Amino acid sequence: MGVILKNDLSQGCRLGIWEITENYDDLRSRLILESEEVKKLEGFKSLNRKIEWLSVRTLTNELTGMNSRIIYNEARKPFLLDNSYNISISHSHKLTSILIGRFNRVGIDTEFMSHRISSIAKRFIHEEEIITSDPDHLKYHLYIHWCAKEALYKICDKQFINFKKNLRIDPFIPADSGEIKGTVDNINGIDTYQLSYMRMDNYITVWCCK
């Protein structure tokens, strides 16, 4: 299937989503890898993990328009080796999503809504956050909160963040797509973020550029 979404956003950011239907050989043939990358790829024991890894590199090249190499810091935050873009990566089930920004910080999260997320809501929902009482929308509402907080966690470099204590999402009514406001309150100070979200079948994706 390959790219199912590629959008140029405001502030010079670009969003891409890839649906993985290809096999290992199909994806591998699209890439030119350095020896260290080949070693990394061959080190994965799971075939699904290899395919996921390849899909991330393939989509990154699609978004940047060049052969891009991804590296990670000690906190597992991704970077492009040439620093041409900031990058955020997410993968869930059969979807890989990537957000890049040439001058802006970026954060993205995609989740396949398969789990009973209400059972762990108390771990990441702040007491002041408002969650719907409608049972038909509860699961989706919670997943938007979770993905939004994952995106904020990534855009803040995964540092000094507790999902329940340091991240809050303003009240909103869930729709198939929309914008929400999030606040980060930690040792670095208080900052607000505008996030966007959308639903694709049973997937939810939330992203932020700042």
Please write out the topology.
Blueprint: E1 2-8, E2 13-19, H1 24-28, H2 35-43, H3 47-64, E3 70-72, E4 78-80, E5 86-92, E6 95-101, E7 106-112, H4 138-155, H5 163-166, E8 167-169, E9 177-186, E10 189-200, E11 203-209
Antiparallel strand pairs: 1-2, 2-6, 3-4, 5-6, 7-11, 8-9, 9-10, 10-11
Write up this protein.
- By secondary structure, this protein is of the alpha+beta class.
- It has helices at 24-28, 35-43, 47-64, 138-155, 163-166; strands at 2-8, 13-19, 70-72, 78-80, 86-92, 95-101, 106-112, 167-169, 177-186, 189-200, 203-209.
- It folds into 2 domains: 2-103, Ribosomal Protein L22, Chain A (Alpha-Beta Complex), CATH 3.90.470; 109-209, no CATH class.
- It is 26% helix and 35% strand.
- The protein has a 5-stranded antiparallel β-sheet. Strands 1-2-6-5 form a 4-stranded antiparallel β-sheet, covered by helices on one side. Strands 3-4 form a two-stranded antiparallel sheet.
- The longest helix is centred in the first third of the chain and has 18 residues, at 47-64.
- The protein is globular, with a radius of gyration of 17 Å.
Annotated CATH architecture of the largest domain: Alpha-Beta Complex
Category by helix and strand content: alpha+beta
How much helicity do the residues have? Answer: 25-40%
State the CATH superfamily name of the largest domain: 4'-phosphopantetheinyl transferase domain
| Annotation, overall tally of beta strands | 11
Biggest β-sheet, characterized? 5 strands, antiparallel
